[in-house]
Write a structure and sequence with these properties.
Blueprint (H helix, E strand, L loop, with lengths): L3 H23 L5 H22 L9 H11 L1 H11 L8 H13 L2 H10 L2 H18 L20
Amino acid sequence: MIGAKGLFLVGALAFWLPEIVLYASTRQALNGKLVTFLLPSSLLIVYLLISILRRGRVAKPSAAIFMVLGVVFLGTLAMTIGATIRGAGFLGHPGSTLLGVLLGTVIPIYAFIAATYDGSLYALIFVSILMPLIHLLFERKNWIIPPKKAGVTSMSGG
């Protein structure tokens, strides 16, 4: 069974990898309408496949929530990789770019700022709203915050 960390990584790859592959093949800016349609579509297809594979009654991490967290938190890194392929990103100023990527990973609002320049802002906003709604509609039984383990006793003795 895929855990929360795996869903985090799968979500980021499902959303950002098509854009990186297109940058690698064209080496130029992409059509905004293509990005707006392609990125959420690929994330939703992967989410559907994961949901089919994870059927069962046991509570598990919410695929929708952890996948969208991966999209947002690793978005700055993914967009920087795409920019590097096009001749910017890590090629120009690797030190300051790395600092920006680390900052963007810790403070997720920078993913939305970078997406504005990347052309993927509408796609990012769309999945940021859609995936929590999908959680509410289809995954209420799955957890966002891990449940406490049953039978764990206090070590303090008092």
